[in-house]
Amino acid sequence: MMSTKQKVIIDCDPGHDDAIGLIIGVQHLNVLGITTIGGNSPLENVTTNAIKVLEVLGAADKIGVYPGHNCPMVAPLTTAPQFHGETGLDGPVLADPVHRPKSKHAVDFIVDTVMKEEDVVIIATGPLTNIASAINREPRIVDRIKEICIMGGSVTFGNWTPTAEFNIFVDPEAASRVFNSGIHIKMTGINLTRQCNFKSSHVREFRKIGTKTALLAADLTDFFIEACEDESELTGATMHDACAVAWIAFPELIKSAPMHIDVELNGNLTRGMTVCDYRHLRGEDPAVDLERKPLMHFRGEKPNAEAALELDFNGFVEMFYETLKVSA
Fold it and tell me: How far apart are CA 306 and CA 258, in angstroms?
């Protein structure tokens, strides 16, 4: 399986599944920098967690971590300690980091990097506050960002509410700004990420591989399995954020479809919902047969995004095993 050394900025809130995503990204992408955002845990925690993961990967000397916003645009921060623990990365026993976060704010790093570098992809696996703020600060980046691949939203059901996924729910105003920015969006929603479910059998393979990174992945997954089972009655650990990173590194793993996607801001029952128009995909099984000609023309606005629909999970697992084997 070939990977592209695509230039990326990873905007994240580690988070166990973010950490798995960082393992994939550092190995297979040209990570220009990591920006952090308050989400799964407060900003100080997720920034420390990002540095800790980079140190295990042996990448902290070459990849900087840039702290961003500690709360959403208009609402208090919602966090998820029931899934990620009080530190945001409970489970693994990791040393206090040697490296320090960079002094430049995440938004400034995003703007400066995108204005300097060509064809940068932003992978966003937390709330979209930093990305929206960067667009507001320097609108010219809209024409320079190659695309934004987000883990967030859903074509179908929510997880934080019946209709809203956590990352979008935390800052729907920011998400609305990003989806309506004119930048091409890849949406890796929970309708897709629920197909990426690590279980105890995978953890045993990680431990057999035995590299430092593999043992980190095992400890992360062990904790996350238990948390997901306790809180959501799910069997296994759903590696949501890793799917967004994998889509950029290994696009053949994911099937998607074009859609117009917007974010509900006002509904009493639907605030934070990603409203996906896929009426043009009516058919017996549009999630499987994505290459045929659409069965109807777009009735509403033309697509501003593509939504992930189907994951080659076996291919994902094999890719991750190989990644762990060649990592530190």
Answer: 4
Structure tokens at 164: 């809203």
CA distance 31 to 50: 13
Checking if the pLDDT of 295 tops 50, the result is: no
CA dist 137 and 301 (Å) reads 27
At residue 3, the pLDDT reads: 45
Q: Length of the chain, please?
A: 328
pLDDT at 269: 94
Q: HSE (CB half, 13 Å, CA atoms) of 175?
A: 32
Q: Which two tokens stand for residue 96?
A: 């206090």
Q: What stretches of the chain adopt beta strand conformation (E)?
A: 7-12, 30-36, 65-67, 120-124, 145-151, 185-188, 197-198, 237-238, 254-263, 274-277, 305-311
- Residue among 129, 90, 86, 91 nearest 107 (CA): 129
Strands 30-36 and 65-67 turn out to be parallel
Write the pLDDT tens digit of every residue in 80-110: 888 898 999 999 889 999 999 999 999 999 9
Long-range CB pairs of 1-4 (<8 Å, 24+ gap) are 1/250, 1/252, 1/315, 1/318, 1/319, 1/322, 3/28, 3/29, 3/249, 3/250, 4/28, 4/29, 4/248, 4/249
Measured CA to CA, the distance from residue 251 to residue 122 in angstroms comes to 15
Which residues are catalytic, by number? 240
**Which residues have CB under 8 Å from 316's CB, separation 6+?**
196, 243, 246, 250, 253
pTM of the model: 0.93
3-state secondary structure at position 13: coil
Q: Report how far residue 117's alpha carbon sits from residue 305's, in angstroms, rounded to the nearest whole number.
A: 23
